[in-house]
């Protein structure tokens, strides 16, 4: 039996959420909204160096329905895939200051409510989702932006999409305490069907890049591993990249060139610092080139850039692992695969690949027979971002 995960679809999720809301609160919801998960096509470990990233939204969503309850209390129920219900309640920000607390998932909800502009009355809400959790496809940003969009629908207050993304990022910084970059909230908010989003992490400008796949699919393969780390790997790499920039007397490696890499070598720069800088300088170039190739429809070159990116992440940035490397190596020899690379922070998580639609099943079978772990597959097309849903 195939272990491929497929989206339930908004219609089914909406019906599920409405039924649950009616059974819990005895009335029909008055507002509904959803927001997708995402995968980054290329541009890894460059956001903190003010580089470019190129994510797309996935056809999986977090969906929220609800309505005002004529109190100063917010009651939220999250229904998990196995039917388990997680519940939380807290006062509106105008009634009492909101504070971080446990369980951890409630901090994502509280953070958005605390950062939503304007006074909020009490409300009831039900959350359902088919965004895979723990797979590196940003279920957290999906929840944040879906909730913010639901609050817009509920109150009639409309916020500029870029400001919305920034407020959701602020919410994640303040309440869950995750110092995330802007990529996840940006793509979840601003995504367009059949487009990738080229985000400049220095200026925070974003450009829609056409990505009509036709006979191709984006295949996301969850390795189903996440190695236990000390917690120092990410800040170490960030510090190493900044050390390279400091040695070159520039603010960030966004300003560095291949010529600067030779200068670092001439200066006797630490080997690890030089390796990290080499990845960043070339990954930024690869991301810009990938966007140009998508505009031209040159998917063959995009696939080559995927492989180059993965090899750099594995050997220079050293954030891959044997499972991710194995998945990419299996796909290198699989007919129909144009390119594959690890995506996300690394040390586990997912591989993203461009695959001929007619060969996707064969590729999955090859992975299932050769990969030492237990992969989960997602066939994807670039999808729309957050939106309000009609209940009528």
UniProtKB/TrEMBL annotation:
Sequence similarity: Belongs to the GHMP kinase family. GalK subfamily.
PANTHER family assigned: GALACTOKINASE-RELATED, MEVALONATE KINASE/GALACTOKINASE
Ranges where the GHMP kinase N-terminal domain occurs: 107-190
Keyword entries, A-Z: ATP-binding, Nucleotide-binding
Matches recorded under NCBIfam families: gal_kin
Keyword Nucleotide-binding: yes
SUPFAM superfamilies assigned to the protein according to its UniProt record, in alphabetical order: GHMP Kinase, C-terminal domain, Ribosomal protein S5 domain 2-like
Keyword Nucleotide-binding assigned: yes
Record-annotated GHMP kinase C-terminal domain positions: 292-371
Organism lineage string: Eukaryota, Metazoa, Ecdysozoa, Arthropoda, Hexapoda
Domain Galactokinase N-terminal, first and last residues per copy: 20-66
Protein name, per record: Galactokinase
Entries under InterPro entries matching the protein: Galactokinase (IPR000705), Galactokinase_CS (IPR019741), GalKase_N (IPR019539), GHMP_kinase_C_dom (IPR013750), GHMP_kinase_C_sf (IPR036554), GHMP_kinase_N_dom (IPR006204), Mevalonate/galactokinase (IPR006206), Ribosomal_Su5_D2-typ_SF (IPR020568)
């Amino acid at each position: 039996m195939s272990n491929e995960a497929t989206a339930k679809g908004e219609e089914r999720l909406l019906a599920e959420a409405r039924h649950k809301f009616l059974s819990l609160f005895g009335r029909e919801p008055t507002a509904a909204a959803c927001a997708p998960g995402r995968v980054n096509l290329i541009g890894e470990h460059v956001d903190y160096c003010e580089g470019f990233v190129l994510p797309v939204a996935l056809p999986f969503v977090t969906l929220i329905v609800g309505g005002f309850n004529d109190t100063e209390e917010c009651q939220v129920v999250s229904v998990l895939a196995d039917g388990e219900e997680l519940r939380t309640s807290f006062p509106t920000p105008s009634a009492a200051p909101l504070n971080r607390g446990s369980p951890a998932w409630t901090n994502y909800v509280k953070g958005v409510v605390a950062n939503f502009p304007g006074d909020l009355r009490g409300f009831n809400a039900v959350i359902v989702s088919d965004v895979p959790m723990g797979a590196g496809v940003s279920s957290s940003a999906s929840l944040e932006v879906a909730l913010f969009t639901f609050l817009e629908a509920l109150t009639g207050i409309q916020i500029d999409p870029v400001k919305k993304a920034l407020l959701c990022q602020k919410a994640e910084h303040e309440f869950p305490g995750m110092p995330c970059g802007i990529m996840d909230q940006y793509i979840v908010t601003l995504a367009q069907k059949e487009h990738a989003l080229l985000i400049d992490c220095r200026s925070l400008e974003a450009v829609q890049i056409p990505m009509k796949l036709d006979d191709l699919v984006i295949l996301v393969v969850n390795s189903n591993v996440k190695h236990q780390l000390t917690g120092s790997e990410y800040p170490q790499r960030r510090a190493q990249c900044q050390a390279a920039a400091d040695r070159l007397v520039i603010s960030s490696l966004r300003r560095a060139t291949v010529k600067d890499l030779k200068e670092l070598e001439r200066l006797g720069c630490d080997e690890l610092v030089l390796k990290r800088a080499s990845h960043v300088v070339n990954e930024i170039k690869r991301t810009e080139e990938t966007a140009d190739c998508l505009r031209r429809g040159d998917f063959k070159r995009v696939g080559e850039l995927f492989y180059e990116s993965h090899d750099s992440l594995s050997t220079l940035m050293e954030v891959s692992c044997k499972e991710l490397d194995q998945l990419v190596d299996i796909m290198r020899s699989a007919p129909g695969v144009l390119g594959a690379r690890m995506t996300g922070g690394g040390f586990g998580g997912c591989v993203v690949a461009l695959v001929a639609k007619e060969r996707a099943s064969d590729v999955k079978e090859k992975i299932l027979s050769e990969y030492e772990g237990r992969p989960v597959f997602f066939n994807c097309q670039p999808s729309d971002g957050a939106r309000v849903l009609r209940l009528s």
